[in-house]
From TrEMBL:
Domain PTS EIIA type-1: 32-136
SUPFAM superfamilies: Duplicated hybrid motif (SSF51261)
Protein name from the UniProt record: PTS system, glucose subfamily, IIA component
Coiled coil region boundaries: none
Main localization of the protein described in the UniProt heading: cytoplasm
InterPro entries (alphabetical): Dup_hybrid_motif, PTS_EIIA_1_perm, PTS_EIIA_component
Subcellular location: Cytoplasm
Length: 161
């Protein structure tokens, strides 16, 4: 009860942990203008150090891309989250990606969503930076993020209604 009241009146907010370990940076540091200019939404990006993406929160997989390079999640808090591993990696047609979920799946925080081979993707000439974007950021008064080293399931995004 008090948690709901607190969130209604600006306290706390919604936490979205990091879906992958690495270094969190501002979206403006992503070389793709679609992400850098916030066209898809607000958030941050992670330069991954591990090729595993986990569900940061309990959610429904609204779309697991056929190529396995990206996944979008709908949370019970109303957050529409896109996790996009790498830039232009759709061109790899699924090579070096192993999805572990499908569109429509219900996932729990910490569930493995996909694995990817960082070295093979880089060797193919692609950047593995991973934007983590709140696609419906306009539904929130503020989207803030942590920068620097992050662990999977560690602090990353905070959203305020």
């Amino acid at each position: 009860m008090f948690g709901k009241l607190k969130s209604m009146f600006g306290g706390g907010g919604i936490s979205i942990p990091a879906p992958v370990a690495g270094e969190a940076v501002a979206l403006s540091e992503v070389s793709d203008p679609t992400f850098a200019q916030g066209i898809l939404g607000q958030g941050c990006a992670i330069k991954p150090t591990v090729g595993r993406v986990v569900a940061p929160v309990d959610a429904t997989v609204s779309m697991m891309f056929e190529t396995g390079h990206a996944v979008s999640l709908d949370t019970s808090d109303g957050v529409e989250l896109l996790i996009h591993v790498g830039l232009d990696t759709v061109m790899l047609k699924g090579a070096h990606y192993t999805p572990h979920c499908a569109t429509g799946d219900k996932v729990k925080a910490g569930d493995l969503l996909m694995e990817f081979d960082i070295d093979a993707i880089r060797a193919a000439g692609y950047d593995t930076i991973t934007p983590v974007v709140v696609c419906n950021a306009d539904d929130f008064s503020n989207v803030s993020f942590k920068t620097g080293s992050v662990e999977a399931m560690g602090d990353l995004l905070t959203l305020k209604k």
